[in-house]
Design a protein that fits this description.
This protein has about 190 residues and is of the alpha/beta class. It has a 7-stranded mixed beta sheet with strand order 3-2-4-5-1-6-7, sandwiched between helices. It is globular. The chain has helices at about 15-20, 40-55, 70-80, 100-105, 115-135, 155-170; strands at about 1-5, 30-35, 60, 90-95, 135-140, 175-180, 185-189. The protein has one domain: 3-Layer(aba) Sandwich (Rossmann fold), CATH 3.40.50.300. Strand 6 and strand 7 (about 185-189) form a beta hairpin. The chain starts with a strand and ends with a strand. The protein has 6 helices and 7 strands, in the order E-H-E-H-E-H-E-H-H-E-H-E-E.
């Protein structure tokens, strides 16, 4: 099951997504962090995000690229849990925060710009594999499409790629919620 949480910068989408996960019934709550710590500003943001999550019983997994690799982490963490009658029963929820960071990391990996279609297909494939292994996947993504500013070709490709990913995930999602000024609006589901 996929839930998409969508909104603009500082819209309240992350707080809404965290609340959704924290109020869930699952035994394991994973926070799949995609932000890469490349400079002091991003390091400070990561530190602030960790502080905001403290006390919420999240297990943080950091995968700035190749999010399907989180599957191995989850399997290792849960390998000894036979608290249900069925040892293969999934009782976990993953909050992927956020798609725009993941795309930027994949698209500009190693200082080389990857092809738009390659990035879109890779991320969608990784998400499909992750979804198959967890009970519920909540994905936070951004609305970066409304500003009307003219961008360079590389940035336009990034915007097109994020639009393609968001569209494909929204089609596959069980629920899509747009958060505007802290108010969640259910679009689908």
């Amino acid at each position: 099951m996929i839930t998409i949480i969508y909104g603009g910068t500082s819209s309240g989408k992350s707080a809404y997504a965290e609340g959704l996960v924290c109020n869930s019934k699952y035994n394991y709550r994973y926070y799949l962090a995609t932000m890469s710590s490349q400079d002091e500003e991003s390091k400070a943001r990561i530190k602030r995000h960790r502080k905001l999550r403290s006390g919420k019983r999240f297990i943080t997994l950091e995968h700035p690229v190749d999010v399907k690799n989180a599957i191995g982490d989850i399997e290792r963490i849960e390998s000894g849990d036979f608290s249900t009658e069925d040892p293969y029963h999934k009782s976990n929820i993953v909050l992927l925060e956020c798609m725009s960071n993941l795309l930027a990391n994949e698209m500009f990996k190693g200082g080389v710009t990857q092809e738009l279609d390659f990035c879109v297909n890779k991320i969608l494939s990784d998400i499909q594999e992750l979804e198959a292994k967890v009970s519920e996947l909540v994905i936070v993504t951004n609305n970066i499409f409304d500003d009307g500013i003219a961008y360079e070709a590389e940035t336009k490709d990034y915007i097109r790629a994020l639009g393609a990913i968001n569209s494909q995930l929204a089609l596959r999602a069980n629920k899509v919620v747009e958060v505007t000024v802290g108010i969640p609006i259910v679009i689908k589901g």
